[in-house]
Design brief:
By secondary structure, the protein is an alpha/beta fold. It is built from 14 helices and 14 strands. The protein has two domains: 4-194 and 367-381, Glycogen Phosphorylase B (Rossmann fold, 3-Layer(aba) Sandwich), CATH 3.40.50.2000; 197-363, Glycogen Phosphorylase B (Rossmann fold).
């Protein structure tokens, strides 16, 4: 049986390629019709991020509903009301405005009794607005992590309301599953990150932008934001100027300060790159890094880069994260700069083709297709 799905995303389709796109693309391929609602933003986001501002303005100038491929449509919401993170009333008004527009779109598309699939934690006012057969909250991070004061208070109230009211909750990490289980009506289902393993193993080529960088190359791929321990990376770069740290991903303005580390001659910022280029970019690395800070965000995170790194097969160095520990057999875990330097030295010296092949093989246990199997099983269990 196929369903119509309204997916409320926390990213645009062409922004950071992750669980939202991977899951919805696969569900569309199975015959489900998807309306993918791109990231809602307010004036504060546009003021802070010039790249986001340019992308949203370009999207708003185009037709607001476009078909990307069979069974998959994209919609770019209008600018949301300011202050929605600090006011339950402002958020409720904004969500009702969005619901009115979405009802028009699903009528246009002929959607009936859709599944409402939610990523933003403030979306409880949308429940019941579409005669939906089922509501799903796919929680991919601890959204109130590192927030404080009024904003944290409002966000927690809104997310708890969503957790209590939806029919099904998927949590990205065991920590999130345990934290949210007492709040929900139904058991929370663990649905970690994964990798498009076939994509990351589709080529052995090395991207030319990486090939010009001297060996050894230490790669970090993903959003460059407040989760990254820049001081740790800088300590490594200064201690070993013959190593080259390569940063691949979108830099989040106002969320990370790279001014110091970019003064190091052995640090290379390649910026945001298309998902299609990631395999050849990572193929050129000698080892791959997960240098996160420890805080309320990262303690609950399921890093998508963990599984994508495994799919490439290169050695991996990571800080000690709860979601990394189950795969510690294939990853070197280190904390202090001295431990990181020692772990990288060992990885560069002793890695073997057999270990590379083993990591690539392990990755096949953590594919998005496996996650889709879990999703379909849960939907079948609910008899929708």
């Amino acid at each position: 049986m196929t369903y119509d799905i309204i997916c409320l995303s926390t990213t645009d389709w062409d922004e950071i390629w992750g669980s939202r796109q991977q899951i919805m693309e696969r569900l569309a391929a199975q015959g489900h019709r998807i309306l993918f609602v791109e990231r809602q933003v307010g004036p504060e986001h546009l003021l802070r991020d010039p790249i986001l501002r340019a992308r949203k303005r370009a999207a708003w100038r185009k037709q607001t509903l476009r078909q990307l491929k069979q069974n998959l449509w994209l919609f770019q919401p209008s600018l949301m009301l300011p202050g929605r993170y600090f006011s339950i009333t402002a958020n409720t008004v904004g969500q009702h405005m969005l619901a009115r527009r979405l009802r028009s779109l699903i009528t246009q598309l002929g959607f009936e009794n859709p599944i409402l699939w939610i990523y933003p934690p403030h979306s409880a006012p949308l429940l019941g607005q579409f005669n939906e057969r089922l509501s799903v909250y796919h929680c991919i991070e601890r959204f109130i992590g590192n927030q404080a004061g009024r904003k944290r208070h409002v966000m927690e109230i809104e997310e708890n309301a969503l957790l209590r009211l939806v029919n099904l909750v998927f949590a990205h990490s065991e920590g999130l599953r345990q934290r949210y289980t007492p709040i929900t009506r139904q058991p929370v289902v663990l649905l970690p990150s994964a990798a498009d393993v076939a994509h990351f193993q589709s080529t052995s080529e090395v991207h030319p932008d990486v090939a010009v960088i001297p060996h050894p190359r230490l790669g970090l791929a993903g959003s460059i934001d407040g989760r990254i321990d820049v001081k740790l990376l800088q300590a490594v770069s200064q201690a070993r100027p013959d190593w080259h740290i390569v940063l691949i991903g979108q830099t989040r303005p106002g969320r990370v300060d790279l001014s110091g580390i970019m003064d190091e001659s052995n640090v290379h910022l390649l910026g945001a790159r298309p998902f299609a280029d990631l395999p050849s970019l990572l193929n050129g690395m000698d080892t791959l890094l997960i240098p996160y800070v420890h805080d309320e965000l990262t303690d609950y995170i399921s890093p998508i880069k963990l599984y994508e790194y495994l799919a490439v097969g290169k050695s991996i160095i990571s800080v000690d994260l709860p979601e990394v520990r189950p795969l510690a057999q294939w990853i070197s875990i280190a904390e202090t700069p001295a431990e990181w330097i020692a772990a990288i030295e060992e990885a560069l010296l002793v890695d073997t083709p057999e270990r590379i092949a083993a990591r690539r093989n392990v990755a096949w246990k953590h594919t998005w297709d496996e996650r889709i199997n879990t999703i379909n099983l849960q939907l079948a269990t609910l008899n929708i």
